[in-house]
Structures are given as structure tokens and as C-alpha cells.
Amino acid sequence: MAINIPELRQKFSNPGIAELDLIARYASLPEDERRGRMFDAFAETGLPGRRVEGWRWTDVEAAAARLDGTVAPVVVPALSQPHDATVFALSPTELETPEQLPDGILVHRRDVVPALAEAENIPMAALAGSLCQYKDNAASIVIEITAPLSAPVYVNWVGQSADTNFSRLAIVVRSGASLDLVESYCGGASLSSTLVELKLEDNADVRRSLFHAGDAHEIMTATALVELAANARFVQTILSLGSLLSRFETRIGHTGTGSNATLNAAYLCGADRHCDITTFVRHGAPSCVTRQMTKGAVLAGGRGVFQGKFLVPRTIGQFTDADMQHQALLLEKGAEVFAKPELEIYADDVECAHGNTSGALDDEQLFYMRQRGIPLSRARALLTEAFVSEALASASPAVRDALHDTAREFLSEMHG
Amino acid sequence: MPVMLELKDLIASVGDDEPKTILNGLSLNVPFGEVHAIMGPNGAGKSTLSYVLTGRHGYDVLSGKALLDGDDLLEMDPEARAAAGLFLSFQYPVEIPGVPVMTFVRTAMNAQRAVRGEPEISAPDFIKQARLVANELKLTPDMLMRPLNVGFSGGEKKRLEIFQMRMLEPRFAILDETDSGLDIDALRTVAEGVNVLRDEKRGMLVITHYQRLLDYIKPDKVHVLSAGRIITSGGPELALRLEKEGYDGIVGEAA
User: Is residue A257 in some structural domain?
Assistant: First the structure.
């Protein structure tokens, strides 16, 4: 039975041009029940915007309507690859893998479209899931890590058309295995949505370091769904320079006792750049730890968004230890930062805290530095770099310096 | 000796919203090679003077002159004044989180050199000099790797001010209550650090409440500042008299 486009359209309320394109694209893919359920979930909101909870400040719908599709986004230089890394390039049609995979890494191509739990809560991830289709009928790609790896794994999310990119990747880290995962998002598509599903088995250890930079004609959302079994350790570090609209959404499920998550991010937004860091952490097992630090610095015409939520259910969330911090610097007049930290706690024996501040650089510090002869612009850059570097300290040693350098370069170009 | 720092009829106010006149016709000359002390009661305008000279925002000069070796300080940005050789040892040194002492000082040093058209100091030369000076000031190498002033005690911060002064080798230094918060041993260490820089090409203004510091940094002249002007000046013996009689006597006598 062929997919009926008019019927699909009816599932959307008043679809825009971008959504009509997505409907046509969906209709061109092989029909699949699970794919259909994801697309239905996406159809409930369409491209999310103002009216959708959690997307109030990151209005994909409005940005897509504003985008002039004739301007192809520029591909920004990707984060340089660590010399000893195992490199994967993930395009919307294929995962390019090294000819010989090191021990401990297996790649599986499957013809089954995997289901997506709670797809209705993550419309852009549902979109990625429903429109992702690799060549040779591969509907999903799974990277399996079976041992502690000695070298980092580098995944380059490559844009392939100026139009749209939708990719989905699953990574399973087996019990006791470890992975140093570096990802670069410098796509170049007008609209892209990526979905990473990471599963850490008991005692697995993953350090995930992400870099993103895009231009002023690019909407990108990157969703990660992370499941942590008992005593798993997960450390994530993001550096984003934003794009027309960008969002990193990370959803963590602590599902086994004693798992540990660190979620750090730094966003640096210049003019016409929007960067959204959204996280949701569910403490679904006792004695789990979450540490979260997000730092932002925004220039005139830039916009930063932070949304963080910890959910601690009544019985299973007992002995949770969780801390969420967001600190933003508004470096110039006309910079904008929106923040919504949330704790939802039902268990009674937990330690949970959050903090949220935003403000300007300290005049007293600036004067002190200038008195020593440091020009104002340099003083501002130094203070801002020091401010955000705390959030980058957790990045993989393989790329930590490169991330710091990128931040420094960005800041050295800002005005005095 | 010719005049190095020349202040003439300085009138300055503090505050953006409701400006308050703090310096009220202050005149003072410090010749090359001399160290002058400024003493005075609380609220006399001592710290205001140091901020006016270094160009802090919110300290507005309404009239008067401030020249350093003939150059008009009041026309310059704070960083330009620093490059011209003006240094302030802060009464309350500011914490600079995330910027290690070594990075900070080297950045400052090279920024000043760039303005003066001098080449940058090489990393090995810088490290060598920093170790030498730190050792004299009883600062450990570990302290130089830590963020500037963060988690340092009051005395350590003052020693770090002098460390920066020694590294930057300013032509004219203002020490704003550098003695506050120092015990006797630290006071001696700091004073020795300061005295190393005394020579015929430099000048200093030492602002203090107490005579004690002047036992270690012997001034050529002492000025008493009250209500925003110099009301009396004299030799080192004036500081001793102040210590004995208090400000009330001398301020009253001059008025």
C-alpha cells in the first residue's frame, strides 16, 4: 500500500513549506510500521516552536519559515581528528568506516527500523528516526564496543546536501568496555536532525566530546538518548558555537544502581547565532550521581538557551546525588540568555541542588587587568575564556586543547 | 632632580549617579628617584587619588593636571597608563579566576612591551625571572601556577602585588596600603621587594595609614592628605609626629 500524501498532510495542523517537504520525503521512503509511528509522533507537533513545551525559546517552526532555502549553509571546518582515532563519517546515506576496524569495535547494519520510545516527547528525534534511511536498505546502524578501547573513536556528522540531513546511530557499550567518543557537527544542511542512542551496560565507561559550529543559514538539532546500567560512567562535554538555530538535547536514564553522569557544556554565541543546551536526567535507580555544568558567553545579537531537568522518582530514586549549574555571561548589550533549571524530586533521601546565574563581566576584574597593561579586549577574552574553560575540562584529552583553542580563537575576535 | 609625577589642582569626583567631590585641589610633585608617602585619616581621598591616577571608571577629573614625565595621564586609557610605566599595588587585590599568575603576568608584560615597541619576552627568560623574583618574595612555584589571587591569604595577595611590580618594573609605582594585612615578617619581605626597584629613574607614592611601613620603605617626603588636599608636607619626621599626635592634632593645626 502506497503512502497517501494528502492523508499525511491531514495529520499536521496547517503544515508549512518545510513540513510539506518533509512529508514528501517521508512518502518516498519504504513503508514501515515503526517508521510510521515516529512520523506520526513528529506530526503531532510538526516542526516544534513557540506553542510546544520545551521549544518556546528554540522556535524551529519560525526559523524554518524564515530560512531562504536558496542559500546553502557553509560547511564549517570540523574539529581536527586526533591522530590515532578510529574515524567514522556519518552521512545521511551511509556510515563510512575504516577498512579495518580495531579489536573491540563491531559495526552492524540492520534492515529493521528500530522503534523510538517516547517519540512524542522528542519531535526532532522522531523526525530523524522516521526519515533516516541508509543505502543498501540499511535502516539502522549500530556500533558495538566490546572492550576497553585504547584510541578514541571520531564520528564526523557530515552534511551531504544543502537541503536536509537526518541521521540516526546506535552505540552499544558492553559491560566493562570503554569508549572515548569524539563527535564533530559542522554539517552544512539547512535543516538537520541527528539522533544518537547510547547504551552503556554495567560498568561501561564512555567519555563523549562534541563540537558544533554552523553558519547563519543552518538549523540543527542533535538528540542523544543515553541509558546507564549499574555503575556505568558517562561524561559528556559539548562546545557549541551555535548556528541560525541549534539545539543539543541530551536525555539520560540512570537505570542501574550507582551509575554516574557528568554533563558539561559551553556555548559561545556571536551575532545571529542561537545555541540551546537542553537536558533531561531521570534518576530511575538508587544511588546514582549526576554532575552538570553549563557555561555560556553571548555577544550582541546572539542567543543562548539552557533547559535542564532532573527527575527523581519516589522509591527508585533514593540516594540520588545530583547537581545542576548554569552560568552565563552576557558580553554585550543585545545578548540574550534564557534559562530554565528544574528539579522534580519525589524521593526523600536525596541530595539535589541547582544554580543559575547570568550577568556581565566584572568591572573590577577588568580594571585590575587593564591597570596591569592588558588591553580591554584582551582582558575580556581572557576572563571569558577562563569562565567557560571550567566546562571544557572534562573533554577527552584527545581534543581538549583543540576545544580550548577554538574557544580562545572565537573570543579573541570579539570586540573590546 | 626634575619632576616625575606632577599633580596640579586636581579636583575629582566619584560616582556616576550622584557624584561626590573627593579630591579638592590636590597638588603634589614627586621628583625622579624619590619616594613620597601620603598619610591621612579615613576618607581623606587616599584611595581615590590612586584610582584617579590609574584611570578607574567612575572617578572623574573635573579640573587640574596629572603628568607623568610630561605625559598627560588623564588623556590615556588605564592600559596606556600602565604601558607608560604607572603601576598600582591595590589595597584589595582582585581575584582573577581561571587565569594563572604566570599567564596573567606574561600577558601583561608582553602587552606593555607591544605598546612600547619592545620585543616580547621569551618563555624561558620569563620563567627564569619569575622564579628569581618569586624566591625573593617567598612565593612558591606552585603559587604561580594557581589562578591569580584566588584562594590566597591577604598577605599572599600583597606579596603577589609586589611580585607583579617587580616583574613589570614600572617607572612609577603607587602602593595603596600595601602594609594592611601583613605581619612583621611579610612586611619586611614586601618592603625589601619594593626597595629593590628604587633608583634615580623611578618614583613612588606610598599610601599608608601607619608609620610602620615607613620604617622599611624610607620616604624622602611625607604629605598629609585631608579632605582632598595636601595640608602639610615634611620629611620622615612628620610621619613620626603623626604617629604620636594623631591626625586630629595636625589636621586641626593646618586648618
Answer: yes
Whole-number pLDDT of residue A70:
64
Tens digits of per-residue pLDDT, A253-293? 999 999 999 999 999 999 999 999 999 999 999 999 999 99
Residues of B in contact with A385 (CB under 8 A): 98
Q: Which helix (H) or strand (E) holds A82?
A: none
Residue-range definition of the domain harbouring residue A122: 72-362
Q: Edge-to-edge, what's the strand order for the sheet holding B71-72?
A: B20-31, B3-14, B59-68, B71-72
Residue A415 confidence (pLDDT): 56
Residue A186: partners with Cβ closer than 8 Å, 6 or more residues away: A75, A76, A77, A78, A79, A157, A159, A211, A212, A213, A214
Query: Within 13 Å and on the Cβ side, how many CA atoms surround A96?
Result: 11
Alpha-carbon distance B3 to B30, whole Å? 6
Q: Per the domain annotation, does A47 fall within a domain? A: no
In tens, the pLDDT along A18-34 reads: 999 999 999 999 889 99
Interface test with A, best of B52, B76, B77, B79 (most A CBs within 10 A): B79
The set of cell numbers assigned to A145 is 564496543
- The structural domain count of chain A equals 1
Nearest Cα neighbor of A364 from A344, A338, A383 is A383
Any domain includes A368 = no
Mean pLDDT of the region B116-124: 95
Query: Which of A372, A376, A380, A404 is the mutation pick for testing B, counting most B CBs within 10 A?
Result: A372
CA distances B240 to A301, B178, B229, Å, are 60, 19, 20
* pLDDT higher than 70, residue A162: no
Q: Which CATH architecture has domain B3-97+171-254?
A: 3-Layer(aba) Sandwich (3.40)
How would you class A349 by CB atoms within 10 Å of its CB: exposed for 0-12, middle for 13-18, buried for 19 or more?
exposed
Model confidence at B166, pLDDT cuts 50, 70, 90, reads: very high
Distance, in Å, from the CA atom of B76 to the CA atom of B158, rounded to the nearest integer, reads 26
Determine the residue of chain B that is closest to A374 in CA distance.
Answer: B108
DSSP β-bridge partners for residue A278: A249, A307
Mean pLDDT lowest among A101-105, A346-350, A353-357, A407-411: A407-411
Residue A69: the pLDDT is 65
Q: Any idea where the domains of chain B sit in the sequence?
A: 3-97+171-254
> A321, A292 in Cβ contact below 8 A?
no
Nearest-Cα residue of chain A relative to residue B101: A369
Residue B197, classed as helix, strand or coil, is coil
pLDDT of residue B46: 92
ipTM of this predicted structure? 0.96
Of B82, B95, B107, the CB nearest to A371: B82
Residue A181 lies in a domain: yes
pLDDT in tens, A111-144: 899 999 999 999 999 999 999 988 888 888 999 9
Burial of residue A410, with CB atoms counted within 10 A of its CB: 0-12 exposed, 13-18 middle, 19 or more buried:
buried
Q: Are A173 and A200 in contact (CB under 8 A)?
A: yes
